[in-house]
């Protein structure tokens, strides 16, 4: 189905200028606290992990420190894995799932892996429940050189300091009903174009990389997550979010070309999780546990293959 050709800001068919972006920003409101719901949860982790500030976002809307949590038993001979959450700040279980992994599971993997977790790349987006940053830029389309997104650029700079090849990068996301009701209509308005909505998948799925699909890795994650929550079935055309299935619960995107988070890291194993928090079959806790299961399922697969 096609979305409405009108949006509350701008003229249909015309790209937004600075005035329209200002109008959009004025409509955004803080709905929750990054400090209380994210940063405060990192404080107890300092007893077991290294918690490091890797950057700070600076906007007229405010400044936001950015944090990573790292395992302490760092060893250049071990495989290094990166977990990212909150690239889209509104996707709650991505942020909380990354933190829950640290609270409950990460330490048990630290003998085998160097672990880097960036739980919330987009704090302003988290607080205002937004896909974009205050400049109306989508961080998860901005992982490339000279990025227009402070959020994306900060993480890329930090990871580059390690001068190593990542073994795995798992990026935690959600697909929500507001993708069709708000965010895709806003995108069409901003770009002066028309976007086709897709049916929102009812369940968990993964987005792999068309250039490096690592099918067995994706399959292993799906099998583990299926023990926690339901896997999204394809629509009537055999697709998820408008893309043909590569296997049960998995579609592949051109991650580098699209500037997606998992595309910048050049890891051997990459995936983007997608939880559906609006399903009547789940609750907030189930969504968080599904994200944790995706991480552990991926790490267990890597360990088993040697």
UniProtKB/TrEMBL annotation:
Keyword Hydrolase on entry: yes
Gene3D superfamilies: Zn peptidases (3.40.630.10)
Superkingdom of origin: Bacteria
Co-factor requirement: Zn(2+)
GO biological process: proteolysis
Keywords assigned by UniProt, alphabetized: Carboxypeptidase, Hydrolase, Metal-binding, Protease, Zinc
Residues of the Peptidase M14 domain: 30-306
Gene Ontology MF: a single term: hydrolase activity, acting on ester bonds
SUPFAM superfamilies: Zn-dependent exopeptidases
CDD domains named among the record's database cross-references: M14_REP34-like (cd06231)
Family classification: Belongs to the peptidase M14 family.
The protein, known as: Zinc carboxypeptidase-related protein
């Amino acid at each position: 189905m096609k979305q409405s050709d009108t949006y509350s800001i701008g003229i249909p068919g015309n790209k937004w200028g600075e005035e329209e972006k200002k109008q959009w920003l004025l409509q955004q409101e803080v709905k929750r606290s990054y400090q209380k719901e994210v940063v405060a949860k990192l404080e107890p982790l300092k007893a077991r992990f290294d918690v490091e500030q890797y950057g700070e976002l600076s906007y007229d809307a405010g400044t936001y420190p950015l944090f990573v949590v790292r395992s302490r038993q760092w060893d250049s001979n071990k495989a290094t894995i990166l977990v990212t959450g909150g690239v889209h700040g509104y996707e709650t279980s991505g942020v909380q799932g990354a933190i829950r992994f640290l609270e409950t599971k990460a330490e048990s993997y630290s003998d085998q892996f160097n672990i880097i977790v960036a739980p919330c790349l987009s704090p302003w987006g988290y607080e205002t429940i937004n896909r974009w940053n205050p400049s109306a830029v989508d961080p998860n389309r901005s992982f490339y050189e000279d990025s227009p997104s402070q959020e994306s650029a900060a993480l890329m700079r930090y990871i580059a300091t390690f001068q190593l090849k990542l073994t795995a990068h798992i990026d935690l996301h959600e697909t929500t009903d507001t993708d069709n009701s708000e965010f895709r209509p806003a995108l069409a308005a901003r770009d002066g174009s028309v976007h086709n909505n897709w049916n929102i998948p009812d369940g968990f799925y993964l987005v792999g990389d068309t250039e490096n699909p690592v099918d067995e890795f994706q399959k292993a994650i799906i099998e583990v997550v299926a023990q926690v929550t339901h896997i999204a079935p394809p629509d009537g055309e055999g697709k998820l979010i408008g893309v043909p299935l590569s296997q049960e619960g998995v579609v592949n995107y051109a991650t580098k070309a699209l500037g997606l988070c998992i595309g910048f890291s050049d890891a051997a194993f990459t995936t983007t999780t997608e939880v559906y928090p609006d399903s009547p079959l789940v609750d907030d806790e189930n969504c968080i546990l599904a994200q944790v299961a995706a991480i552990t399922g991926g790490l267990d697969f890597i360990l088993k293959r040697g």
